Amino acid sequence: MCSAGAGAAVPSSRAPGRPRSERASQAILRAAVDLLLEGVPVEALSTEAVVARAGVGKATLYRRWPNKEAVLRDVLESLTEAPVRPPGADLREDLVVLVHELCRWLVESRSGRLLPRLLGTPELYARYVHLVIEPRVSAIRDVLCAGVRTGALAPHSQTEMLLTMLTGPVLSRVVLCSAVPGSPDDLRDGRFAARLVDHVLAGHVIARNQLS
Questions:
Q1: Exposed e or buried b for every residue in 1-13, given b needs 16+ CB within 10 A?
Q2: Hey, where are the domains in the chain?
Q3: Angstrom distance (rounded) from CA 26 to CA 6
Q4: What is the mean pLDDT of residues 3-32?
Q5: How many CB atoms lie within 10 A of CB 208?
Q6: Residue 50 CA: distances (Å) to CA of 80, 97, 113, 152
Q7: Which residues form the HTH tetR-type domain (predicted)?
């Protein structure tokens, strides 16, 4: 095996310039989220405000991102996380767990509370839905599909319609409630999720005595 000569250039995957500081990058992303949650509209958000909040210079931001839009795209990437795993023993219980988690996440977490702030920006909102909301919606879809396969749900059940009936009221209620301080207790404590699941499943769940 031949070795490279002493004067040979060694390829490098690192872009020219200073090594990236993960701490500075996270501070910038966190600052952008903070400003949005405080009510700064997306269109009014400036890189000057972001770096001032992050405590870094503009050069630090522009070494990492070419503009505000690129920062916001990475903000959304940073918010992705796996949804909770339901117990898996009972259709209703699993749906209540997942719908309640969706409610709680939307009203309590930083990533969830961004939803109303992004409604006026179609491109960012679509990316937010794909990266951040869809994994939670897919978990609910999986439970519904499993319910049809196992016979817990009636064969005529349309899972996509049931999915819309379970998630639509949650999203609309959270958006409407975002206009006033605080959030209804039933979104946090699970009462809304339980009532919604029971209402949607009525007429679709096959009673246990019908399975025998």
A1: eeeeeeeeeeeee
A2: 21-78, 91-202
A3: 39
A4: 62
A5: 8
A6: 21, 36, 19, 50
A7: 22-83
β-partners of residue 153 are 205
Residue among 47, 171, 151 at smallest CA distance from 106: 171
Q: What is the pLDDT of residues 132-173, one digit of tens each?
A: 999 999 999 999 999 999 999 988 889 999 999 999 999 988
**CATH for the 21-78 domain, from 3.30.530.20, 3.40.50.300, 1.10.10.60, 3.30.1340.30:** 1.10.10.60
Give the separation between CA 100 and CA 196, rounded to whole angstroms: 10
Tell me the C-alpha distance between 108 and 182, whole Å. 10
Q: Helix 134-150 crosses helix 159-177 at what angle (to 10 degrees)? A: 150
| Residue 3, CA atoms < 13 Å, CB-side half-sphere | 3
Compute CA 119 distance to the chain's CA centroid, rounded to the nearest angstrom. Answer: 14
Q: At 31, which amino acid appears?
A: A
The Cα–Cα gap between 102 and 170 comes to: 8
Q: How many residues does the chain have?
A: 212
The domain covering 91-202 belongs, at the CATH homologous superfamily level, to Tetracycline Repressor, domain 2 (1.10.357.10)
